[in-house]
Write a structure and sequence with these properties.
Largest sheet: 7 strands, mixed
Number of helices: 13
CATH topology of the largest domain: Aspartate Aminotransferase, domain 2
Low-confidence stretches: none
Mean pLDDT: 95
Distance between the termini: 30 Å
Number of strands: 13
Oligomer: single chain
Number of domains: 2
Helix content: 40-55%
Strand order of the largest sheet: 1-9-8-5-4-2-3
Order of helices and strands: HHEHEHEHEHEEEEEHHHEEEHHHEH
Structural class: alpha/beta
Shape: globular
Radius of gyration: 21 Å
CATH architecture of the largest domain: 3-Layer(aba) Sandwich
CATH class of the largest domain: Alpha Beta
Length: about 375
């Protein structure tokens, strides 16, 4: 591959520093959830300006902790169709049924008008997904719609570490938020997640649920339902390191995105633009193909003839097209239907490689190759 689709931001200096800290953890004999996990939770909460952060084993677990802590049994939860399946699986695991909401085909963000049509009397939460690190331009309207229905606004901020809208950081807009630290994320630790909130009762409940329902960890007294959602001490060590470098990582991603913005100006490709006043994290750099250009053919030709592999889409197949629902209709609170905005947006976009340290000359060569391949794909007879 001429440009890796993803590159984890650990330099040789970072690796040497982390190796020393890893040795310290091993020497301590405390490799389960401990001081590094607690420090990462405190540091992440402070970074966001929130009082509570609860670590978990993954972003999915963090989202599920929020849903279980509010008990969505028998309720409905509204989820945008352009997201990863985990956004729906987490509330399902907490006993909810899903309402799939269409998306704006130009941004892949939740369509507030479709949400207003579909939100129900039994809706307990609306999950707002900051797709690719972009925040919905209409997030305040979506929040009002949720509040008017008596529902929580939960942010799925798995892609959005450090994203900002009007000075407010992703994870601080609603009642609670879930972050992922999977290997490809903006702040990567391999695995891990974090649920954040300003609600002390919600935080206390999540702490109990993640420790088998114990109100006091290690007490062996179980007052409610819970499972093992505990974070890893080793991954927390990595989390502390990337959190300390968050500003540097975000600056590098935004610099690479600015290069793409300049290179793609005047081309056939239409990048997803940040709404005014927003600073995306650019977990993904999303751009739409010209109408009529088949994505698979374009990507295959780009790889075969020019040697470039693009990053994975967000997402190639919307939730409303996932075969899971056909065999499990009981998990839907609203009849399955065609969602044209999600269909169009998910089918037409590609994601360009973006990571800290990406060479602008490499970006220029990639865009030139994309333009060449796009011309030839379009010129072929139907």
């Amino acid at each position: 591959m001429l440009i890796p689709p993803v590159k984890i931001p650990f330099s040789e200096e970072d690796i040497e520093r982390l190796a020393g800290r890893f040795k310290d953890v091993l020497r301590s004999g405390y490799i389960a959830m401990g001081p590094n996990s607690a420090a990462f939770e405190a540091g992440f909460a402070d970074w966001l300006g929130l009082p509570f952060a609860v670590g978990a084993g993954s972003g999915t677990q963090a989202l599920e902790l929020i849903c279980r802590a509010r008990d969505f049994s028998g309720a409905s939860v509204c989820v945008p169709a352009a997201t990863f399946m985990a956004t729906a699986f987490a509330p399902i695991a907490a006993g909810a049924r899903i309402v799939l909401v269409d998306c704006d085909p130009r941004t892949l963000q939740m369509d507030p008008a479709d949400l207003e049509r579909k939100i129900r009397p039994d809706t307990r939460a609306v999950i707002l997904v900051h797709l690719g690190g972009f925040m919905a331009a209409d997030w305040e309207r979506i929040k009002r719609t949720a509040a008017d229905a008596g529902a929580m606004l939960i942010e799925d901020a798995a892609h959005a570490h450090g994203s900002e809208a009007g000075g407010a950081m992703a994870g601080t807009l609603g009642d609670a938020a879930a972050f992922s630290f999977f290997a490809t994320k903006v702040l990567p630790t391999g695995e891990g997640g974090m649920a954040v909130t300003s609600d002390p009762q919600l935080a206390e409940r999540m702490l109990s649920i993640r420790q088998h329902g114990q109100s006091r960890p290690g007490s062996n007294v179980h007052e409610g339902f819970g499972l093992n959602y505990r974070p890893s001490e080793i991954h927390a060590l990595l989390g502390l390191d990337v959190l300390a470098r968050a500003a540097e990582i975000l600056e590098a991603r935004r610099a690479a995105a600015a290069v793409y913005d300049r290179l793609l100006s005047g081309t056939r490709f239409s990048p997803v633009a940040a709404p005014p006043g927003q600073k995306p994290s650019y977990y993904k750099y999303m751009a739409f193909l010209p109408e009529g250009v088949p994505r698979k053919e374009f990507k295959d030709l780009l790889m075969r003839e020019r040697g470039y592999v693009l990053a994975g889409e967000v997402y190639a197949l919307p939730l409303s097209r996932q075969p899971f629902w056909t065999g499990n209709p009981e998990f839907l609170a609203h009849p399955l239907e065609v969602l044209p905005g999600a269909d169009e947006g998910c089918s037409r976009h590609v994601c360009l490689p973006i990571w800290p340290g990406l060479d602008p000359d490499d970006q220029a060569r990639l865009v030139e190759a994309m333009e060449d391949v796009c011309r030839r794909v379009r010129s072929r007879p139907a």
